[in-house]
Structures are given as C-alpha cells and as structure tokens.
Fold each of these.
Amino acid sequence: MQRVMIVGAGKGGTALLKRIVETNLMEVAAIVDKNVQAPGIKLAKKLGIETTTHWLPVIKKNINIIIEATGNNEVMKSLQKDKEPGMVIIPGAVAHLISELVEEKEVLIAKLKEETYKQQTIFNSTNDGMIVIDINEKIILFNKTAEKITGFPRTKAIGRNIIDVIPSSKLPRTLTTREVETNQEQVLENGLKIITTRIPMIDESGNLLGALALFKDITEVVNLAEEVTNLKEIQVLLESIIQSSEEAISVVDEEGRGILINRAYTKLTGLSEEQVLGKPATADISEGESMHMKVLQTRRAVRGVRMKVGPAKRDVIVNVAPVIVDGKLKGSVGVIQDVSEIQKLTTELNRARQIIRTLEAKYTFEDIIGVSEEMKMAIEQAKLGAKTPATVLLRGESGTGKELFAHAIHNASDRKYNKFIRVNCAAISESLLESELFGYEEGAFSGAKRGGKRGFFEEANNGSIFLDEIGELSANMQAKLLRVLQENEIVKVGGTKPLPVNVRVIAATNVNIEKAMAEGCFREDLYYRLNRYPISIPPLRDRKEDIPALCVRLISKLNQDYGRNIDTITQHALELLHQYNWPGNVRELENVLGRAIIFMDHHETMIEATHIPQLQVPLIDRKVQENGPFVHNNDETLADAVERVEAEVIKQSLEKHEYNRTQTAKALGISLRSLYYKMEKYNLANNSMQ
C-alpha cells in the first residue's frame, strides 16, 4: 500500500485526509502544517496519524506520494528540492480537483442508489417473479417473488451465473436467439411448475444488454388439473414408468390377483402376462410363501424375503409394500431382485478376502464374546500380553477361539499396522513346511522358483506370525523354530547367510505339550521359549453362561452368510443348548445354529427348540451312561487312566467309521497327523490292517 504525506492541514488538506482514510486505498503516514491548531492536524491526531510542523523528518520514512495541499508555489518548490528520488508530488490544485470529483461521484452514487431503491421497490411489489441477466449470463436482478418461487436466497443469487441458480433456465438461449418466448411451461429444481416469458433486452442501437424472465407459479393449477385428468391417461403413465424400470415389479389387487407386471419381471421369472395377470399371487412362486398375500393380510410391508420363483426356480429377494388409498387397502406392490449378481459379487469379495486373510488381522478384542469370569480373565491376560513383545502361547481345545485371540493380540499391539501371517503347522506337509516358513534360495531344489521365495517369517518381518497347531511340528522343525526364537534370524533353504527378522510369535495348540515333552515328542527348551506368556482359553462347557451372547453374534454372522433375517432364539432352544457339553466348543455351536437356520422356512424369523438338530452325546459320555463311571485301578496313575480312556475312545470311533482315518479324525476333532500318532502309540494301526 502506498504511503502518503499531506502538506497543509487547512480545508483542502482536511478534505483530502478524510477521502483517503475513507477509501482505504492509501496509507496516510503524516500530515504537515506549521499551524498546530489547523483542523487537519486535530483530525489526524484523533485518527492516530503522525503530525508535524516540517516535512523533512517524515520524508525519510519511506514516503511514496506527497500531496501539496497549501497551494503555495514556494512550498511546492521546497518540496521539489527536498523530496527523495522516486517520490511523486501531487500539486494542491490537482488534489483539490480530485477531492471535488470524489464529492461529485458520491453525489451521483447516492442518486443512483435512490433510483435503484425505487426500481427495486417496484420490482419487489409485483406478484410475478422477475430475473434479469447481463450478456455474460450473470444475474443482475432477482426480485422477492423470484426468491419465493425458486427457494434460492436473493442475496446469494445476485452476481452468480443463472445456470448455477436455476440449472433448467432457458435465459442463456434467449441471449443467443434474441427471440421472445411467451407462456413457456417449466419445472424448477424444487418441483414447482411455472409459466414463464423470456424477453431479450436490446437498446435503441440494437446492442444486446441482457435478458428478462417473467414467471408465475402454476403448481396448484397443475395439481388441480391432474386430479381431473382422465384415469386412463394416468394408468398409461404409471405403466410406462413401471415398464421402463429394470427392477422386476408385480402388482396385485386387494384380493391377491395379478393386475400388472413389467418386462423385467417376465425376463426374471420366465412367466408371461397370461400366466400371471388375473391369477392368484402364488402363481409365480416355486418355493416359499406368497409375500403379496402376507402383506394383504397384515397391511405391513415386508423386506428382504428370500424365495424361488418361476419354472427355473430363480433365487430372488422380495420387497413388498401395501397400496393404501384413503385408508382402504387397494392391493400391494412387489419388487423382485435377482440375487445371482449379488452372489457373484459376494463370491469375488470372499476370494479377495482369502487372498488378504494371511496378511492382516480381522478381529479385535471387541469381537471376542464372553461374560463368564473365566473368559474375562483370558481376555485380560491377552490384552496385557499384547502390550509386550513376548511370545504368547494360546492353549485350549479345538474350536475355543485361539485364532480369534491371536488376531486380537496383534491388533492391540504396536505392530498392528504391519503384517499378520497365519500358518497352520498341521495343514502343511513336513517336506514343505521348512521352505514355507523360512523361504528358499534360487535352485535350492528341483522346481524352485527363479529368484527364490520369501518365507512366512520374512513376510511377517516387523509384524506378527501365528503358528497354529504348533504341537504337530516335527523334531527337526522344532529345532529350527527354536533358533528363530533365540537368535531372531532365519536361514533360507539352500542358503547359508542368516537373515535377521523382527517377528512377534503367537503360537497355539490343543494338545498337552507337557505330556508330549515327557514322552520326548516335544523339545523341552522350545517349550520354555514358547511358554513365556501362556494363555488358557476355557472350553464352552465351562462357560455356558456365554451361550446367549454367542448365539446373538453367530446368528448375525449366519444371516449374512445365508441371506436370512433371523432375529433371535427362543428361551426353550437356549435351554437345550445349555444341556449339551459342546465337545467342539464354539465352532460346534456355530455349526448347530447354521444347520438350524438352513432347515428353517424363509418366513420364520426365530429359532425354536424344534429347529435345533438332535445333539449327540459325546462318546465318553455314552460310555459313562452305559457302564457307569470308569473304574479306577488304585495302582493306576491319572495319566495312565487318561491314556486308557483315550485309546478306547479312538478305537470305538475307528470301528464306527470302518477305520476311515479322515472321518475318524474329523469326528474326534483332531488333526489327521495326531490321529496317526495316537494310533501308533496305542497300537491301533495294526488292528486296522486285520
């Protein structure tokens, strides 16, 4: 901003000072006058502007412009002599002329404002909406009626492009054509219908100045006209809308007979109009209950009901709503959606999840359900363990949720933004396990990838690795894992150079490691490395008070998996679940609920006791029921008694499944490798050959 010094604080200097301060275009650095009582000096002091009796001290303060307001030639000459290079001196005569011009401009502005106010009063008093735009399509007039009809604030409309305010406006076309358009119907963005006249504004010389629109709201008139429109025309209009929809739509009357279907419905179901119109609402259903009839009976809408329709038994989701006019039920409308596309997208999503499931942890402690004291204690231990870098050993029966705990521990640790790798040690053959865990160098063995391969530990660097079924590791792999835990480094298959890794190990097992260690099947030094922070997860039979909360969470999950809308489970059904001991734990509970939902009718929303499949009493419990409590030999230790019972159970299960090892392992809830080990241990392998 330019800095100004005014020389002369008389009438002219005072007027200039006022103008400059009001316009705020320049900064008044000082005002100079020998008369300290001059009006300009007094005004400057009030405004906090520097005053002085001589200009020399001020000139040195970066002054850009000097205004000589005294009219004295001697003063002018002295200023010319004393000014710094680059300074501009405006003579007093010019300054006075500028002041007079400013005053005249203000008078003209005041007159213009008065005229504009009169015009605005006239424009705003009319009942017609008025909008005027200039040749650049900018709004220069927007009266109150226009504001009321369009719903757009007048203050925000002025100066904006007409299309920004009314996208459907045709005023830009009027600027182009210069033609008058009278009584044109238009629908505004807020749904109001108007009749508008558009006029180009041209002066006497033929120059285009802008365009004017005059319009009235005719919505009420149109609404009245629509009420008396021929019913046949309305029906044709509605049919056109329904036929243009890509959603399959069917309409029935109050008696449940079809009165309208669209082309999308015919394409989806494979049924023609002759097969549906005039026929009962059940005519198109292959499997399931008619939702049209249910809505007509209850007068309530139904959403997301799954059923099969048409000869091809297409799997669909149905939404049906009642049609009520003046409180009277006139029929119902159903929208049918093909779920094949949804299933396709769901399949692709599941595939994507499978790809990334080894790279990230999906669950947190909020996903672990438990109100029992045993489960609360396990959760608290896991939360404490998550804050430390120590190796965690999760112990518990199959199906208790060890993997869920592993996910939660990773997500609660400071490694949660790094990878979470999951490895099932029992699912990978021993010959491949080493290369999968530690990777291999190029040419390490026949068929090795070019460039080698990164192992799970290298992938999990700076993150966590979850080693499930760690009790199934061979002695050789136990030794290699021990080195990783001790030295924090790995050696690839076929390599010699150790690679440092920073990996947090979370291990899990459902076998008795102490017993395996005593039998020489598990290394003692590895056991103490893994057992630094053990967490025992209680079986479901020891925390049955968690079953109701688990059922709520599992039903929600199963609804998503099976596309159902099951709301809850009855108290009687819960009592049945409480009576069972759940050898398969939470996994078995999920299977039982899933089986119940699969066999429920599509209209049922509550799991009853009748839906619960018959729960088989575990083999050991049957043994107890048949023979009474096991007789304990006083000379027999507890470990021997447990082994005797275990051998008998495995033998009976093998006989039941005709020595099919895969089915036997599945029935017993153990890995196939564990079954082979136990068969050899109890000399059951030889019996299978007989």
Amino acid sequence: MSSESSTIEDDRRDFERRLAVEGERLRRLLGAIYGDHPGLSAALASTLELVEASWRERTAELKDLDRRRAEQPDWFQSNAMLGGVCYADLYAGGVPGLQERIPYFRELGLTYLHVMPPFLTPEGNSDGGYAVSSYRELNPSLGTIDDLRALGESLRGNGISLAVDFVFNHTASNHEWAQRAVAGDPAFRDYYWMFDSREQPDRFEETTREIFPDDHPGSFVQLADGTWVWASFHTFQWDLNYSNPAVFRAMAGEMLFLANLGVEVLRMDAVPFIWKQLGTSSENLPQAHLLLQAFNAVCRIAAPAMVFLSEAIVHPDDVLSYVRPDECQLSYNPLQMALTWEALATRDVRMLQSALADRHATPGGTAWVNYVRSHDDIGWTFADEDAARLGIDAYGHRRFLNDYYTGRFEGSFARGVAFQFNPKTGDSRVAGTTASLAGYESGDAGGPGRVLLAYSLALSTGGIPLIYLGDEVGQLNDYAQLEAEGRREDSRWVGRPAYPARQYSERTDASTPAGALYERMRWLIGLRRRFGQFGGGELVPLDTGNPKVLGYMRPGQEGRPLLVLANVGDYPERVEPWALSGQAGLWTDLVTGGGHDLREGVTLGAHGFVWLVPEG
C-alpha cells in the first residue's frame, strides 16, 4: 500500500472514530435542546450527512492540519501566539491586499490574523460587516471567496492562522432566507421570530433589554406588511430562531463551509443571544451553551483543527461560562480589557488586581484572548458585587468612566467618543483607538507609556495577546470615517481608522513617535516569544501593598517564575521589600536587562513595568 493510500485510510479511520464519539454527543445535545420536536429527526440525519460530505470535501492540506492539531491540542497556549485584527478594506484595500501585508505580519510576529467580517452585506450601514447577506460571498469591493481561501493558504504557509467571524445569531434582512420569509414561505418564516401582532413581542419585551436604543426601541421591529420580527441589534439584523432545528442544520452548513475555506479560529459572535425564551432576558440561557456544544461536536467531527472564540460582553460569570474545551476553547477577556482602562483612569489597580485573583483562571484546554481594545466600544463590564466589595458604587463609577474617556471629566487625558447613550438608563459606552484613549490625541506626555503598559499586561497575563493593527504605531481616532455612507450615526467608526501609512513608514525611525512605540512593542513581543514563562494561562496574584502597582507571578514551565509589577500612576511608585519577601534575591528585568535586589524593594517610573526573572 502506498503512503498516500495509507494516509487516506488513516484519515478515514480517524473520521469514523470522531463520528462515533462526537456523533453520539451531537445526538444527546440536540435531544436535550429539542426534546420531542417533530423536526429533530430529519435535522439530525441531515446534519450527519452534511458532516460526512464536508469532511470528504476537505482538502488534504487541511486534513493534515487536523492531524497536527490533534497531536498538539494546546497549540494556542504557546508563548509564541500573537493575534492581529483588522478590516480588510481599511487596512489593505481588500482581501488580496492582505496577502501583500504578510511580510509585515511576520515582521510583527503574528500567528493569527482576524479579518473583520468580509462577507456580503447590505449597502450603507451593515453594522461594520455584522449584517451578513451571504456567508458564501464576499463584498465585491473586498474580493471573492476564492481570494479569502487563497489568503488562508498563504497565511497558513507563513505560520499564521486565519480567523473570521461566524455571525450566527442573526442574518441581514436581505439574506436569501429572510427574503423568502418575507415572501411568505412558511419554512423560512420559521427561520426567524416573526409575529403578525404585538401580543408576543410585548410579552418578550417585558424581560429583554434594549441593545441599540439609538436604532430602535425594544427587541422587535415592524416590517412594511405589519409583521413584527426580532432584531436584537439593528433593524436590518434579524435574529435566527434556533428553536427550529432546521436552523441549526442550516447554520452548521455555513460553519463547515468556512472551515473548509481554511478558517482555523472561528469568532462566535454574540453568543449570549442565540436562544430566546419567554419570561427570561433571552440572554445566557442554558440552551445557548448546548447549541454551542452542538456546533462544537459538528466541528470536532468534520474539521477538528478549527477552534471557537467566544464573544460575550456580559457579566464576568457569564463570560467564563462559555469557556470549555467542548464549547469555546478561546474567549475574549472583556473584564481585563475594561479594568485596564479603569485602572489607568483611577490610578488604582484594586479592581484589576481583584479580577486577576478571582476571575482569571480558565478550565484546562482553554485560553483567554487578551486585548486592549477592539473594533467595538468599551463597555464597563465589571461585576457590581466586585465593585461593592471595594466600596465602589458601580453605577456612579461607570458614569465617571464614561465621562473620563470621552474627555468630559476635567483633567482627562482621553479623547474617546460616546456610543449608544441611553437616556432612560444613563448607560453609555466608549469608542476610540488605544492611542487616543491613552492621551496621544490630547498631547498628554503619558500617552506612550500608557499604551505600552496596557499592551504589556495583554502580553504577560497568559492567553493570546491581540493587537488591533495600527495600535503598534500609535494610530489616532479617524473622525473622517463618520463621513462615509451609513456611518454617521455609529461613533464606533472613529476607532476604525484607515491604514496609517505615515506611521508605518516611520516605524523603523525611533526618533518619531510611531517608531519609538513600534520599537518597544516589538521588543516586548520578542521577549514573550523567547521565554516560556509567558505560555499557558496560570497566574498567581501578588499584593504589592501599593494601590497604584499591579503585581502577579507567572509560574511558567521552565522552573524560573516571572514576576510582573506595573505602575498605573503618573508618578514614580515604590513596592516595599516586605511585599516581595517571598521572592527575595537578585532578579533581572527582561525588558531593560537591569538587575533588582528584591530585598531592597522596587521603584517603578510613571506607567513603568518590569518583567523580572530570578538570576542564576
């Protein structure tokens, strides 16, 4: 038997083993979700047929990736991991342009690239690409689906995994399924939550919240024919009805299409919202977890190399509930992100220190994705009860943070913009680039230090650090983005700048602001890649005795721990020897190469940080 035939036979046996185990899990999960639903049997049978067909169509290269990932299931916990995220059009003029940026991605050290939703969308406002008209076509201005496939192949050849969004809570209102529903096709009307009167919508809205109050009140919008349809987000984003098992089967097909394009990290968008139930908030319900686990089972059979990244900007307990090897192996860490900014505004690390102590650990086989900011707004998602334990009024503190980061608080260094202010609740969020939020735009001298400090935490706390591309050269808010069609009412676009060509051209000149920042960012990224202590997710908090200095240990895997100290204050701060008594002796700062005798304490400059390892 030839080696090729042997490989094919091995692949088939591996597939059949996965089908036996994960297929049974899928049956159990769908049974728990749908019970005696009359459409369950047909949907399950069709899904299993789909799984085998998709596996047969999977390329030999991707099946080889499946094998390699099975041999190294913790691949995403490596200290070499570094993510980048961008809009294809804004950053490179389209998907083909991203191919041309691959040498730069390698220079920076990326190992995964998240391309913001490039799929076909309605004209005008598309919620930044999150109103998907077709999961199998790109917006023509960005390229073709074959361009996305080719990008995945090129990235993979350069050691970079492709990540894209799976917008599976809703479709655009002009998606084929939605249009068939509007035309009266009963099968497709059951794909959405559609009602002929306000009776049911009124009952649902007694317990659901408004997500985008500037766009429409409540959870439903009315169509021209009088029909009411569930739209959690924008009027043109219609929520799918997962209580219909045919919807699960249909979306499993779209997911596997993306897997066979070469997607390795699938960002599961808006996971808390996917299951609706009368009398509840219709967020974070048990069936949402079961659905994610069912999608996970499908993926484990047909495309096991692909992992899920949970996007849940909710209470910290709910965020963590989605993080499991059999659900979402990866999750954004919105709490650390928000509390990093909170600490910089208050010059007080107590809330962030508490979060690292109590809310950082994830189950084995999972990891955080740590980011400083995203394409989206910043919501202050800390738990009210955590704030109360520190004597902080959560409502008032959120109001302060919103005022501070939109420049309405006297003396603020930040120049963010408010997003979705709700006059009924006083709630708001903040949008902007890292540099503008940190003080570059206002001319505050501490801006560069705050950017480096924030990214140093993302790089050193464990998990996968993620850079919004352009932050590494200090890109500012781009207010011109609001002038484009469909964007004027969405202030988040100021934080989605066009490619900062001048800053990138200056990145090798350390005498420029862009070059100085880039040089130090690259140095930190290189250190992370060189030292195994940054791998994995284990973290031990250290009480520094100074509310302006954050402290934690990374035990690492090499027998030499890493001690991190970070000063969020605007002036030098000291950690006394008694706080470091358990780590006495001579330590070296990886960042500067300087030595520290911890028996004498440590002094940190404004926005300064150290990555210390014991000498010897």
